[in-house]
Amino acid sequence: LEEKERESAGTTITLHLKSADPEDGIADYADEWKLREIVTRYSDFVSYPIQLTMMKKEEEDDFAKPVVSEEPLNSMKAIWTRPVSEVTEQEYQEFYSHITHDHRSPLLHLATALEGTFEARALLYVPELAPMDLYHREMAHRGIQLYVRRVFIMDECRDLMPEYLRFVKGVVDAEDLSLNVSREMLQQDRQIRAIRKHLVKKVLESLKS
Fold it and tell me: How many Å apart are CA 20 and CA 35, to the nearest integer?
């Protein structure tokens, strides 16, 4: 770390790739398509705009110039953080399609929050039809997606829902978990057990009603 002068307040973090050799696969992380894929997958719902600056050379120029993407790469639309009264049915439907790739309308959706010693929010859906892989869970994906402070952690967090509710889809966003939490740590985590208990209760109440 070293001190530098800046025109405005803030922090600049510069990452250098270990290798530029295409055979190492590391150079891919300097490609526009790869950066867009990473941002969309892991930081699509982060509340700050993420923009991409590319060095591009115009035909009449001898040197490449930095060109900033006009539109942020991330959607920033974490609808589970908004009050239920401010989210339309169409937005719930679009989000369901976005995370599940199922273009049918869900049977029901459930937005809930866990508050107290630790905080978490969830937006869950029950599909209209049973998933094709319901009885082949080793092939299943996109069940309950886990986020920590709107940063994507994993696609299928099975510790958040019991086996008999494996058809439930959605997202859980925890405020107090570590960003580098592992699957082994989740199995022992007291917060995950409390979130699971809360979600099961809410899902069963919704199904009953």
Answer: 16
